[in-house]
Design a protein that fits this description.
28% of the residues lie in helices and 14% in strands. It is an alpha/beta fold.
Length: 827
């Protein structure tokens, strides 16, 4: 299979964004803040920015329906009680004024937000502006000591009325928030704020309508030079904790900009710049595309560099000392372990943060060979331990555990979530004992769950091809460390072609996968479920889209395939006989009246084989082990391409393809100029956000109707009207997400999935890293929705079936075959 086709499949979500950037025609007008830092990176910092530690509780409140067209009335809550004059001065330090009584619906905003629930307990009255001017401007003149009357205006959140009380009384206060939502065309960084962490220095970020944004914070030492191919090493915190008394820069000269990201003058504490995304990890683009600086920033949010281990914190609340923090959601991006970043625009979390009342962390992690190189036994794991992408994620979670409290988060309530390769990462983190204590809940979206992790033999062969392409001997790690990034990328391209030619079952979109190394990842996920050695304490919510593989089919077959040419064409495109055997099923027969029936059924069959049915099997296994598991299928979505003004594949029109769940999950469908998120798209985003954030808060995606602790989620009838039960092995319930009338169905695909399990076998069985795997999980029980018992009467049809030479798939060795010498491996 051609390499460019393979890489294109791994980055289907971002491929057209790259195309737009490469064309450099009609692209968005990017704010200058999106451009890379210049040599004077410290000039972006406002020296008069207030400190959240001094404010002692500052919270961004917004009754956010994530609809682009409805008016928004954001306010800032200062929860520390102050006099009226102190409140006004504090608002001004934030570039705002006290809000007036006619601004929006203050009662609804205060009563529906979960951002500052603890702070509002027992609070009835809050300072607002004495003025009745309905403007939300910050240009009004603040009262002076001589003009402040004896009585000032407070808002009573119980009655919804204003009252006049003594100005000297100390009350919480409400300030305006005059900023807009951050998008690709507007990114106002003028209103900055500092956070002093316990051990990691002072970081200065900025505020927008929805969130405080702290960008480009390093969570591990730069993996460059001798640290290439090494496990992530701790950051030297002293680089960010410096002071100076002579006006010279502090010690932070190795941060996230070209010349460092910190400043300290005149004996003050060093302040580190968190207003810019950090470098993103080296990418392997479709068709070996190369982008210039501004194009790279458009697609990824920042420039590429091997120095890329940065994370970003988005929080609606900076808590007072000792106040319980908000739930934390840590996102691991997808992209086939070859592309994307934590700062890629589709993952803009403002609506998720604001509506959900959660802290969101996104991260970069090493990709391709930078993140998944190993070559045992030629190179020992002490020299190149492997699984670096997952080890990076664990390092980021450790940073969250230590530091997130300073950004308003609760380190004991962490939910990890990810889509595609990010979902495969969720599976790896559920398998890696070193990560178990770092999170409580897992949301996994569109994991290629039918595929096992890589075996040591596969990864070693891949690594050997890579070393050969670098012109390094198989044991010479120093040689590989001395190569340039471009040389590494070129060698990756060669190695991918070779490993695909050496194996007959690995899909091109999954050449890079975590490896079962026996320690960091002790076994393949199915085996760990069987032996109850995965993280059984974590609550799990996972699922698929309705038409996952339809996103990839046009890459192989851009045009409809005539039925008479099906065998020949599919034999060329699909090297795994198991997939062809799958199409012999009575559930995937060709419809003579449908001119695109071959591609339709190929999409249906491979979606079930790689995604839907393995999801049910793993759910059943985890439920058998008494884990709490919720499973879903999304029957509605929104393409990332459509949300960024790009064409959607004609084959995906009318389908819910792989990646179409990203935009609803973040509510990020209105970032590109001229593109809105409204109507059904906004309604569906509300439903997904409410389900996911409720799960992040409670481990259960069902908010009780009218709950006083779960905010707008408990008022969303699309959510409260459907009780989503945890998975069990007898009824196999799945929630089918729809715009309206989402439903839970039991045993909806039982017969189909049983047929696959009995007649084809899943790749994680046939190609398990530890040999052929026979699961102990019980067969899917119950009846289909039409009452037919699974595996009883098979559906009949007169349509044409695809014929193959054998009714059973060929079983392949877990070790890739090649004419070259293979390294010795162990389980």
């Amino acid at each position: 299979m051609p390499l460019n086709m393979a890489i294109l499949k791994t980055t289907a979500v971002l491929a057209l964004l790259v195309t737009r950037a490469a064309a450099a025609i009609g692209g968005p007008v990017l704010d200058s803040a999106h451009l890379a830092k210049d040599s004077d990176s410290n000039s972006t910092l406002n020296s008069t920015a207030p400190s959240a530690n001094t404010l002692q509780g500052v919270h961004l409140l917004l009754d956010n329906d994530v609809d682009s067209e409805t008016p928004k009335f954001p306010v800032i809550l200062l929860s520390k009680p102050r006099s009226y004059q102190q409140a006004q001065v504090t608002c001004e330090s934030l570039g705002e004024n006290l809000v007036n009584s006619t601004y929006g619906n203050l009662t609804q905003t205060l009563n529906t937000t979960t951002v500052a629930q603890a702070e509002l307990v027992g609070t009835q009255r809050l300072w607002i502006s004495n003025s009745t001017n309905p403007t939300n401007s910050t240009n009004s003149t603040a009262p002076t000591n001589s003009t402040i009357p004896a009585n000032c205006t407070a808002f009573d959140r119980v009655t919804g009325q204003t009252v006049q009380i003594l100005c000297s009384v100390n009350l919480p206060s409400l300030c305006t928030n005059s900023l807009n939502r951050t998008t690709l065309s507007q990114n106002d960084k003028s209103q900055q704020i500092k956070v002093v962490t316990r051990t990691f220095g002072t970081w200065q970020g900025y505020r927008d309508q929805d969130q405080f944004r702290f960008l480009g914070i390093p969570y591990a030492a730069p993996p460059v030079g001798n640290l290439r191919f090494q496990a992530p090493q701790p950051v030297n915190a002293s680089l960010f904790n410096g002071t100076t008394g002579n006006g010279t820069p502090g010690n932070g000269t190795s941060g996230n900009g070209p010349t460092g990201n910190s400043t300290a003058v005149n004996g003050t504490a060093q302040v580190n710049d968190a207003t810019e995304f950090g470098y993103v990890c080296p990418q392997l683009w479709p068709n070996n595309a190369t982008l210039n600086q501004s194009q790279t920033i458009e697609v990824l949010g920042a420039e590429e560099s091997e120095d890329c281990l940065y994370l970003n914190v988005f929080t609606p609340s900076l808590k007072a000392n000792g106040t319980k923090g908000l739930p934390v959601m840590v996102y691991v991006h997808g992209g086939g372990f070859t592309s994307a970043s934590g700062s890629s625009p589709p993952f803009e979390p403002g609506n998720l943060v604001s509506r959900g009342g959660v802290v969101v962390v996104t991260m970069n992690y090493r990709l391709s060979m930078f993140g998944l190189f190993e070559n045992t036994p030629n190179i020992s794991r002490s020299q190149a331990p492997g699984n670096l992408a997952i080890r990076d994620q664990v390092a980021a979670l450790r940073w969250v555990r230590t530091n997130i409290v300073s950004f308003g988060g609760d380190p004991t309530r962490v939910t990890i979530f990810g889509e595609s390769a990010g979902a495969t990462s969720m599976r790896a983190l559920l398998s890696a004992p070193s990560a178990f204590s770092l999170y409580q809940n897992v949301i996994s979206q569109s994991d290629f769950m039918g595929l096992p992790f890589s075996s040591p033999g596969y990864s070693a062969q891949f690594g050997t091809f890579f070393m050969q392409a670098l012109n390094c001997s198989a044991t010479d790690l120093a040689c590989a460390k001395n190569k340039t990034v471009d040389q590494i990328k070129s060698a990756e391209t060669v190695a991918i072609s070779q490993i695909l030619n050496a194996t007959d079952w690995v899909p091109p979109e999954a050449v890079f996968r975590p490896t079962v190394d026996g320690s960091f990842i002790p076994g393949d996920f199915a085996q760990l479920i069987q032996t109850k050695k995965y993280n059984t304490n974590a609550s799990i919510l996972w699922g698929t889209t309705q038409d996952e593989t339809a996103a990839f089919i046009p890459t192989f077959a851009p045009n409809p395939i005539p039925i008479q040419d099906a065998n020949q064409t599919l034999s060329t495109l699909l090297r795994d006989n198991g997939t062809q055997a799958l199409l012999k099923s009575p559930y995937y027969q060709f419809n003579q009246s449908d001119p695109d029936t071959v591609r339709d059924q190929l999409s249906n069959a491979t979606t079930d084989y790689y995604y839907g049915c393995p999801l049910q099997v793993m759910s059943r296994g985890a439920a058998t082990q008494n884990s709490t598991v919720y499973a879903y299928q999304m029957n509605y979505g929104r393409s990332v391409n459509a949300s960024f003004g790009l064409n959607v594949s004609s084959f995906c029109q009318g389908r819910v393809c792989h990646g179409d769940d990203i935009v609803p999950s973040f509510g990020s469908g209105d970032l590109y100029p001229g593109i809105q998120q409204t109507g059904d798209n906004a309604r569906f985003a509300r439903q997904v956000i409410d389900r996911f954030t409720t799960f992040a808060k409670t481990g259960n995606p069902n908010p009780p109707a009218n709950s006083t602790t779960l905010g707008v989620a408990a008022m969303n009838e699309d959510v409260t009207g459907v009780q989503w039960p945890p998975y069990n092995a007898s009824s196999n319930p799945l929630l089918y997400f729809e715009v309206a009338n989402s439903t839970v169905a039991n045993n909806s695909d039982t017969a189909k999935c049983n047929w696959i399990a009995e007649n084809v076998n899943f790749d994680y069985q046939v190609h398990s890293p530890n040999g052929t795997f026979v699961p102990i999980f019980p067969a899917i029980n119950g009846t289909q929705q039409n009452g037919t018992q699974p595996n009883s009467t098979q559906p009949t049809t007169s349509s044409t079936q695809l014929t193959t030479s054998s009714t059973q798939p060929t079983t392949f060795s877990t070790q890739p075959t090649t004419s070259s010498t293979q390294p010795t491996t162990s389980a």
